[in-house]
Amino acid sequence: MHVLLKELELPHATVGCVECLSVAVLFEQVLLSFFGCDAASLLPRSPSLSDFVRVYRQQRSQCPSKQTRYIVMEKAELLRDADANLLPALLRLQELVEDNVTVVLLSEIVWDKFRPNTGCFEPLLLHFPDYSKGELQQVLSRDKHPSYSAEFYSSYINILLGVFFSVCRDLRELRHLAALNFPKFCEPLAEGKVKETDAHKLWRNIEPHLKKAMRTVYLREVSSLQWEQMQQTEERDTAAVRGLSAHTHVELPYYSKFLLIAAYLASYNPARTDKRFFLKHHGKIRKTNFLKKNEKTSNHLLGPKPFPLDRLLAIFYSVVDSRVAPTASIFSQISSLVTLQLLTQVSHADQLDAPKYKCAVSMDFICAISRCVCTCFLIHGSRRENRIVQVNGPFTSFLLKENVFFL
Amino acid sequence: MLLKCVLRDLQEEEEEEAGKNLLQVHLNGLLQTDDRIALKEITRQLHLENVVGDKVFGSFAENLSFLLEALKKGDRSSSRPVLFVLDEFDLFAAHKNQTLLYNLLDVSQSAQAPVAVVGVTCRLDVLELLEKRVKSRFSHRQIHLLSDPTFAEYLGRVRTRLGLPDHFPDGRFAADWNASVETLCEDKSVEEVLRRHFNSSKDFRSLHVLLMLCLSRVSVAKPSIRPADLLEASRLCFADAKANMLHGLSILELCLIIAMKHLNDVYEGEPFNLQMVHNEFKKFLQRKSNSMYNFDPPVILKAFEHLQQLEMIRPVDSSSAKTQREYQLMRLMLDHSQIMEALQKYPQCPTEVKQWAMSAFG
Q1: What's the first-to-final CA gap in chain A, in angstroms?
Q2: Residues of A in contact with B311 (CB under 8 A)
Q3: A111-115, A219-223, B121-125: least confidently modelled range
Q4: Does A150 contact B at CB distance below 8 Å?
């Protein structure tokens, strides 16, 4: 858009709606681009649309336009959240200011979601079709590095698209990934191990690297700077990437781990089953149809349920392997788990005597934690329930039906 | 626009008397969103004495009383008539207490300075919006500008719009052009397209958009409109924007949308969250034993968030702080038929994905 307007040298004003916290910023930018900063200073302190139109009209009569003026608004979907009169007024701007001005709205969201309730002047809709794989290849190949040939770069782009195309089609992301990973691709060339035309070896070198990139840089788990540093210093086998997600590098105290595991069990098992799993002598269970109708969908799909503090402590004492006194340090560990956002407090802040919590971590995290703990757990995930059986220590005779998998 | 034409004509006709004397105040509901702003605008446009340059001094109450006094002091014979034109009249009715409307209509009813108030709006029920006291002061004169053309008139409009006027500089080109427009309008396929547009909406603006899209294809090399242009323009007008967006999604995102469609079919439109969609997707992967689509959960989360950013799915309630991102319930904003249509047009869609979409039970 910019390039087009600059090349044709049309008078235009570009406004990024993300920057316009208030409409005053928008008005100032438009007046500044069209008429200079004197015009912009004529606006009162918190201008309304009426002031903007008035100042525009004055300026227009002083310097009439010979060509159409363009106002380009990027991320126009944010205009919907501004005052209700802004969007319809902008669509009618040509009529209101009596000038040859065109407003161009750029957005990724379809027009149907923009339309205000009482209707407005319908704009002309132009759809920019997405790039096909071939077109993406052409566009990306233009950024080629000066010291390598064009075919070399386009074979690199081919490999990159092969890995990332099914996941991401955004040109900006792909360009960023291409720029970041190109040095690694050229590495064997620089070391003299392969020639430019040796496609298979180059592919074997770069492919695991790209797969790793998908898990990390693409997800912004690591910053681009970290990624570049890693490429320079990494060994053949991948070291653990210190990503942003908690589970790769958070270290919890011993009892906190048990507390978290207990919280996970409390969240995902219904309260009725506690007696069965955690007491040594639970007596007979009546084989009633004890699953209610709304529990048919697995708890794993619906999310964690809240549980009271007492239940957490009860499960904790049965899960932990040594005798633990209920000191203040245990309770303070619960609070610090909440601060770390591994647990969420569901009850109101001023209910001090019966706080309720929810477990905010996933099964993978729990598995990762329990690996560090020196007991081994059998986690049995059936379609309906989640049973944990503690194997070391006093051997408990829980009945295990269906499939069981070891951690 | 109609009003402006009328006023211009009036000014040209009665040069000596009313034309020169008439004071006009133009207000627009979109711009003057508040009574205070509206009042300031009125004082500015009437050049009353409390205006210096552009700034209007005094508070709202002072300005209002000043204006009312100024209007009331005159009488029919000696003071200049004032015409108030209120665009988007229904928005003025949304102001607090409808003070401005009340005062203006009050002044126009009382036999003092000759004041006329003309409101322009596109709502038929605008009288319902007025308060009782305001409605009673309204003279209840309404002019409806509704056009109801027949298809023949519609075709006639197309002809007049596309034809070049007589005073066009290049006479020969104008003649050729007009002849080509005539042949165009007699073409059968063109008539069908125009009938389709006529059936969906009779108003002139949508016709305008259609004709503008056609005209944009006219160039120096091709100086006439062909029926194919009109067909293409019509296709663009009726194109579904969401299906176009679906065309540009990556395969992973498309698979997620198909999974959501299956969930909607099975659970009849109940909201879903990412975990459910992921589960459904995993069931598909297990059946196909194709390792190409085995992506990590965070990658799937990113695709899910991209769909949310494009507003293809929307959260059911806006409290995003309470629940984790993976468990927040969402609804799909696409229709079953839109998805199937988009799948047909999707470039290089893998066959197993297509078959999964068509299958009845996910």
Answers
A1: 55
A2: 109-110, 113
A3: A219-223
A4: no
CB pairs under 8 A between A and B: 116
Q: What is the ipTM of this complex?
A: 0.76
CA distance A266 to A281: 20
Chain A positions in Cβ-Cβ contact with residue B347 (cut-off 8 Å): 132-133
A294 touching chain B per CB within 8 A: no
Distance in angstroms (rounded) separating the CA atoms of residues B40 and B54: 10
**A286 and chain B in contact, CB less than 8 A:** no
Query: Residue A11: how many CA atoms within 13 Å on its side-chain side?
Result: 17
* Tens-place pLDDT, residues B169-193: 777 888 888 888 888 888 888 888 8
DSSP 3-state assignment of A16?
strand
Yes or no: say if A375 and A262 are a contact pair by the CB < 8 Å rule: no
Put simply, the answer to whether B248 touches A49 (Cβ < 8 Å) is: no
User: Is the four-CA dihedral A132, A138, A143, A145 of positive or negative sign?
Assistant: positive
SS (H, E, C) A49-118: HHHHHHHHHHHHHHCCCCCCEEEEEECHHHHHHCCCCHHHHHHCHHHHHCCCEEEEECCCCCHHHCCCCC
Asked if residue A342 lies in contact with residue A360, where contact means CB atoms within 8 angstroms, the answer is yes
Task: Tell me the mean pLDDT in the region B257-264.
Answer: 85
* CA–CA distance, B277 with B256 (Å, rounded to integer): 7
Give per-residue burial for A373-400: e unless 16+ CB within 10 Å, then b. Answer: eeeebebbbeeebbbbbbeeeeeeebee
pLDDT for position A383: 36
DSSP state of B15: I
Considering Cα of A145, then A147, then A150, then A156, what sign does the dihedral take?
A: negative
A10 Cβ contact partners less than 8 Å away, ≥ 6 residues apart: A67, A68, A69, A70
Give 3-state DSSP helix, strand, coil % of chain B, rounded to 5.
Answer: 60, 10, 35
Contact call for A127 and B244, based on CB within 8 A:
yes
**Is the CB of residue B313 less than 8 Å from the CB of residue B260?**
yes
What percent of chain B stands above pLDDT 90?
0
- Phi and psi, residue A25, nearest 5°: -60, -40
Identity of the residue in B251, B297, B309 whose CB atom sits nearest the CB atom of A166: B251
End-to-end CA distance of chain B: 57
| pLDDT, tens digit (0-9, with 9 covering 90-100), for A48-106 | 888 888 888 888 888 777 778 888 888 888 888 877 788 888 888 877 777 788 888 88
CA angle A37, A42, A45 (to 5 degrees): 110
Looking at beta carbons, which residues of chain A come within 8 Å of B95?
A: none
Calpha distance A380→A269 (Å, rounded): 12
Say how far residue A253 (Cα) sits from the centre of its chain.
Answer: 29
Here the contacts of B69-72 (C-beta below 8 Å, separation 24 or greater) are: B70/B46, B70/B113, B71/B107, B71/B112, B71/B113, B71/B115, B72/B107, B72/B110, B72/B112, B72/B113
What is the secondary structure of A296-335 as a DSSP string?
A: -S-HHHH-PPPEEHHHHHHHHHHHSSS-----HHHHHHHH
Task: Give B-chain residues touching A219 at CB under 8 angstroms.
Answer: 298-299, 302
Is residue A205 over pLDDT 60? yes
DSSP H helical ranges for B239-350: 241-247, 251-267, 274-288, 297-309, 336-345
Closest of A407, A321, A313 to residue A364, by C-alpha = A407
Query: Per mean pLDDT, which of A185-189, A211-215, A367-371, B329-333 is the most reliable?
Result: B329-333
- Are the CB atoms for A88 and B30 separated by under 8 Å? yes
Query: What residues of chain B lie within 8 A of the CB of A222, using their CB?
Result: none
Whether A360 and B324 lie within 8 Å, measured CB to CB: yes
Report pLDDT digits (tens) over A217-259.
Answer: 666 666 666 667 666 665 433 444 445 555 555 677 888 888 8
Q: Please tell me the predicted confidence (pLDDT) of residue A384.
A: 39
